[in-house]
Known about the structure:
By secondary structure, this protein is α+β, with helices and mostly antiparallel strands. It is built from 9 helices and 13 strands. The chain has 4 domains: 2-96, no CATH class; 98-176, GMP Synthetase, Chain A, domain 3; 203-244, no CATH class; 252-314.
Amino acid sequence: MLRKRMRDCRRDCEGGGIKIAEPAISEIVKRLCVPLTFQPTNQVLYYDATGFEDLRCGEPVIAETRFGPQIGWVRCTPQGLAEVVVPYRLLRRPTTDDIRRYYQLREKARRDMEFVRQKVREHDLPMRLLEAEYPLDENQLVVYFAAEGRVDFRELVADLKRSFPKRVMLFQIGARDAIRTIGALGLCGRPSCCSLFLRRFESVTMKMAKEQMLDLNPSRLLGACGKLKCCLCYEHDLYCERLRSLPKVGQWVETPKGCGQVTDLNVLTMKVTVMLEDGGYGTWHVSELPEFASPPNSVSNCPCKHYCSLIRHDR
């Protein structure tokens, strides 16, 4: 369990290329910590809240990061949680001048990113620049970009070193991190979960969609990032738990109107649709089915002995 949490934290810290914090991890113990969100990547990192016990949700605070001091936004009040904290400290609460400088640097980073974008076009590199930021000490410009594969931008870095007065750091991020950074709307009409509240990306597989009996049309299963939607995980455990209490499609069951074969399931309402012997259909709650029958391979095992007798007679 500890190793899994360590891997999850490294993934959070690196964010598929977003190196906001060093992956150096201390032992997971229950301690007072506070989650901070850093713009523009929407990255959430946990800090030791010792000395900052009175922080409130939504309050800004200056914290150390890999790139220098930066303003983060408190996601919830400090709590005793068994979370992995980054090896950096909370510094102080920002003043009005700090907040003003923060937004001025945000605007400056956007303008300077256009210069970097022009250099990318000149070098004809397959890079899509997403966001840029300056730490409060303005010692370097950090640019986040997305690309299909690995990009050799050594010549671009050398060119920027000659033509740009500040140090430029380029970080490639994955498709999901890109959507978390720039934001997008999902098929539900709401902003993407990753840009709102998701802290880490869980593994999503096509098996989850099959077990939830969803339409396997890629246009409905893929998110704005081109990968399976994260929300497929949300109800997966519930479906797995309830499916253990339901018969399988094709299974023979005994109903109040006789024996029949299951043709459809409604997992959320726990209702079963059954095709009866006479060709009719009926829907019952699983509690109304006395027991689940075995396939009609023998008269002794199937409650519908008449049906099995017909099958055996035909053979």
